[in-house]
Amino acid sequence: MKKKALILLLMLTSLVSMSAAKSVRWLATEHDFGAFDENDGKVSCEFRFVNTGDEPVAIVNVRATCGCTTSNYSKGAVAPGDTATITVLFNPVGRAGRFEKNVYVDLNMEPRRTSLTIKGVVVGSSNTVRSRFPIDAGPLKLRSDMLAFGEIPANRIKTVYLDAYNTSVNPINPRWENLPPYISVGEKSEGIPPGEFSTFAITFDPFKCKEYGVINDEISLVADGEKSVIKTVAILSEDFSGLTPAQLAKAPVIKVTPTRLELTPVSRQQQEVTCNIMVTNEGKQPLLLRRVYSADNGVDVVSFPEKIKKGGSGMITVKINLSEITSDMINARVSIVSNSPKSPTTIVRIAGEILR
Fold it and tell me: What is this structure's pTM?
């Protein structure tokens, strides 16, 4: 028993002495390339360590965490007092923006592994940037110039995101203009550094909007004095999800007559045409017409009843200005937005021929 304990003690002592005999000192474990152009091609740096122990040390393996990063290193044993060099290369092609990569170096000693870090900012080439950010906004490049919020219930705030990239060599502090009361943009106070990405959070607040249905706006992004127009579209709708079956049974029910209005052929010299649409409330609660509108040129809603009582009816009057219609056909849509859960938006089509 004593013999086994002695052998174990000798083995532990030997391991400790071996570990103590091997040691290295890294001159640096991190390198920052700063900002550089993608067109410059591969960049490289060197990491070195000095063998500060009493025994030779060898590099067993060097492994990068990404295929864009490769390495070369000293082969064979590094004698006490000598220096080993590891060259790390980074390929920036197609990798615009800030990067940070790790390279793991394994030695035949304890601790076995050391992590080296390279980082920097790749200023993307025009081809790379154009493929990902096709919209010009001065020195900023944008993913899109159209923001689609989709359908927004009138009691829920919604946020969409717009990606941008700074192609200049200077920081950019963009600002937004022409924002309606219901649209806001979360901005970074520190701006966008050169060669880096940023994401704008654009929020639509329906509590501050008085309209229903399709809502189009144009907001402006100003970067280094250059103004760009960003179009937005949202569909604001009433939220009926909280209604109980009993409330739905008593809710207003809209009936529109006709849902397709065929006009007799009209002469362009007539200049304008007026037509009427009948709306009836077949429900048990008052019917509220939130909005009646048309997005078609030359089609204007002149008047409509905002409230129709149970069993009542009302008339929507639409005027068509023939001088604003360039084709020989009238093909328009009138949208009726109401508080009828079964049909919150009713579409009426108006068609007809315009004679020369």
Answer: 0.69
